[in-house]
Design brief:
Length: about 280
């Protein structure tokens, strides 16, 4: 069973309307190439570093113009569309945000949601301090969604450094795990390829990682290099440092072959089984 996937790589602006003007043509291009699933990165329509401005620009999910536009776009092109994430107001506290990923079906309906579990609270030597938990609420549930014979696990960016989440999704039946990201240029150069290949190899899964690239408002620099990695750890596509789309056709049989060759999931001992995170299956 084959699945054609397109990663979209671009530089999100601080204004969602400006970003969408660049994103929508990339989605159309990917659809014209026959992509079954088109994947957008984390912060898919807006990357705003200023807390006050970000709060002013965000809404609850029901009022999100970006979500409405992208739902219409998925329906127009009759494809699955992964929105890597949108910044949305939390239901419980309007002064707090959530970083939420969506899988949209070809009819534009929302097939699954995932709120980023692991928040990026780090200080690295790129001149910026990242403290997501000061504004964002962490998600509590992993997410796995059935998609035309495939099973897609949803994660976001910093999650990639927590392998138990990927093991849990693989044990639950994931064939592909998405890792939409806005990885910093500094950490990307050091760890991006290695982490994505490791998660693919450990679990015998495809990894699909659409990423932001370039210099954003406030001087933040993202790494790019949107990847699709095979269950054997091979890099099938790498967008490198440029704007555009990359495409790969994935064969579900490759997952079975990898897991038969190295049956690490089957060999996992009971006391080492991943757990502790509630799993929602869509």
């Amino acid at each position: 069973m084959m699945l054609k996937i397109a990663n979209c790589q671009y530089t999100a602006a601080a204004d969602e309307s400006a970003t969408l003007k660049n994103v929508l043509p990339l989605i159309a291009e990917a659809a014209n190439h026959g992509a079954d699933l088109i994947a957008l990165p984390e912060c898919a329509t807006m990357l705003e570093p200023n807390r006050k401005n970000l709060l002013a620009a965000t809404t609850k999910e029901a009022d999100s113009k970006s979500l409405e536009t992208l739902r219409e776009t998925a329906s127009k092109h009759q494809c699955y569309l992964l929105i890597g994430s949108l910044m949305l107001r939390a239901d419980a506290d309007p002064q707090r945000l959530i970083n939420r990923s969506f899988l949209l079906a070809p009819d534009g309906s929302i097939r699954a949601r995932y709120d980023k579990i692991h928040l990026f609270d780090v200080e690295i030597n790129d001149g910026q301090i990242y403290n997501e938990s000061s504004l964002f609420d962490a998600g509590k549930n992993a997410a796995l969604v059935a998609m035309d014979g495939w099973h897609l696990g949803l994660t976001i960016c910093y999650d990639i450094r927590f392998p138990h989440l990927y093991r849990q999704l693989a044990q639950a039946g994931a064939d592909i795990i998405a890792v939409p990201a806005a990885f910093t240029a500094t950490t990307g150069k050091a760890h991006w390829h290695t982490l994505l290949q490791a998660r693919a190899i450990e679990n015998g899964i495809f990894i699909v990682a659409p990423a932001q690239y370039g210099t954003h408002a406030g001087g933040r620099q993202t790494y790019g290099h949107s990847l699709i990695v095979s269950p054997w750890g091979e890099v099938l596509t790498d967008a490198k440092e440029k704007i555009g789309i990359t495409l790969a056709s994935l064969d579900l049989a490759a997952v079975k072959r990898a897991r038969q060759s190295i049956p690490s999931l089957a060999n996992n001992t009971a006391d080492n089984h991943a757990g502790g995170i509630a799993l929602k299956i869509f």
